Amino acid sequence: MINIRDSGVKRLCAVLEDPRCKLEKLWLRDCGITDEGCSALASALRSNPSHLIKLNLSENKIRDSGVKRLCAGLEDPHCKLETLWLRDCGVTDEGCSALTSALKSNSSHLRELSLSLNKIRDLGVKSLCAGLEDPHCKLEILGLMKCDVTDEGCSALDSALRSNPSHLRELDLTGNTLRQSEVKLLSDLKDDPRYKLERLLY
């Protein structure tokens, strides 16, 4: 753990907003960052010269308020972010709702989203599914390991992935309480060449 905290993130973001900065990957796992740091990152993601395509904020307690601030950056046309890791960040269904709005945004470039080890539960999954069903959503990889998802959330995912616009190729549901019957629906979908899903973990 390196405690750069929000003050350190703000200094980094001043560099990210510089036209000369070409940084594409930023790993800030377990750095003591909160929603205040997320505000600075959102501003950097909205900056005209932003080249950042991968951001890892896992194991920071940014919670839903931080996710909402990040989403303001994700929805901006200048944001090029393709990979966002938010593992074990205290995210709930409220944060998922904000992410859904970002996934449905016309300008979203997001291809990989990890929400593993958050208590998003079925309500959060249902919210995300509204994004997966949207034609603007380009998400290809979704991590939901140990998120307290049950059959209800699994059923919503199955419905979303069967929708025409879905691009999802990889889905991780490891460590959730799912019945074999619900998992089989997704497994059948994976084995059907009409759909995009290639890898299913449960």
Automatic annotation (TrEMBL):
Alphabetical list of Gene3D superfamilies matching this protein: Ribonuclease Inhibitor (3.80.10.10)
Keyword list, A-Z: Leucine-rich repeat, Repeat
InterPro entries in the cross-refs: Leu-rich_rpt, LRR_dom_sf, NLR
Source organism superkingdom: Eukaryota
SUPFAM superfamilies for this protein: RNI-like (SSF52047)
A matching Pfam family: LRR_6
UniProt xrefs under PROSITE patterns: LRR
Keyword Repeat: yes
UniProt protein name: Ribonuclease inhibitor-like
Originating organism: Carassius auratus (Goldfish)
Gene designation: LOC113109212
